[in-house]
Amino acid sequence: MSGLELDRIEYCPPIVVGGGVAGMTTALGLPEAVLLTEGTFAHDGSTVLAQGGIAAAMDPGDSPDLHAADSREVAGGLAVAGPVRVLTEAAPERIEWLEHLGMRFDRTLGGVLALGREAGHRKRRIVHAHGDATGAELARAMGEAVRARGSIEVIEGVTALDLVRSRGRVVGVVVRHQDESLTLMVAPAVILATGGIGRLYARTTNPASAYGGGVAMAARAGARLLDLEFVQFHPTALAGDIDPAPLFTEALRGEGALLIDG
User: Fold this and answer.
1) Residue 77: how many CB atoms within 10 A of its CB?
2) Which one, of 101, 113, 105, lies nearest residue 141 by Cα?
3) pTM given for the model
4) Which residues does residue 166 pair with via DSSP β-bridges, in sequence order?
5) Which domains, ranges and CATH numbers included, belong to the chain?
6) pLDDT in tens for each of the 262 residues of the chain?
7) 29 half-sphere exposure, CB direction, 13 A CA radius
């Protein structure tokens, strides 16, 4: 931060850095917020690229307990029971919330949710949209909900550079605009929802925005970082010169597709 010359200072409500599903969910849960995104809102980042679907125990023959048991089993002893319980118990309600926002999940001819199956799940519990375009539909529905909320200001095309602290707490964030000007945005809270670090690797299915900027800002501000070794490498990416690498949806294997090596 030393040597930076600010062009302006603004005072804001809570700031959410990141316009993916995490950032949008956070902003929608606040009375008012400013949401910052590097690219075009609801069209940039990992959310819009997600294909396979969302796991939730929606079938009458399924339950959050079974979902949690499957999650713990495939984790090889690394899963923390508390967060697993929270995720699996809250998932059905979250699906209903997304439908209330306007998300259009795929349904059978009988009108019930069409549930797929993916690796690690003993039950069909993957809700999806437009086949393998779940992330795009999620970004559309949540993006429209954010835009419709008058208490959320969306600022596109800005890069968060660093958090600013005073007396041991974060009081704002410095952002760079497309014209290279710098603004200190002072706020009562700054929430980082900037995605992962997959872009640090030479071959990845992650988007350009997943370079770990938020993780670095948090570290410089004194946050304790955990589990950085957990980076997603999609198991069925298409080899070639396209970057990021295109992927084959996990739903293929869930429906019985076999992977054949050389």
Assistant:
1) 6
2) 101
3) 0.89
4) 169
5) 1-44+149-262 (3.50.50.60), 54-127 (no CATH)
6) 556 789 999 999 999 999 999 999 999 999 999 999 999 998 888 899 888 899 999 999 999 999 999 999 999 989 999 999 999 999 999 999 999 999 999 999 999 999 999 878 999 999 999 988 999 999 999 999 999 999 999 999 999 999 999 999 999 999 999 999 999 999 999 999 999 999 998 888 888 889 999 999 999 999 999 999 988 888 788 888 888 888 887 777 777 888 887 7
7) 10
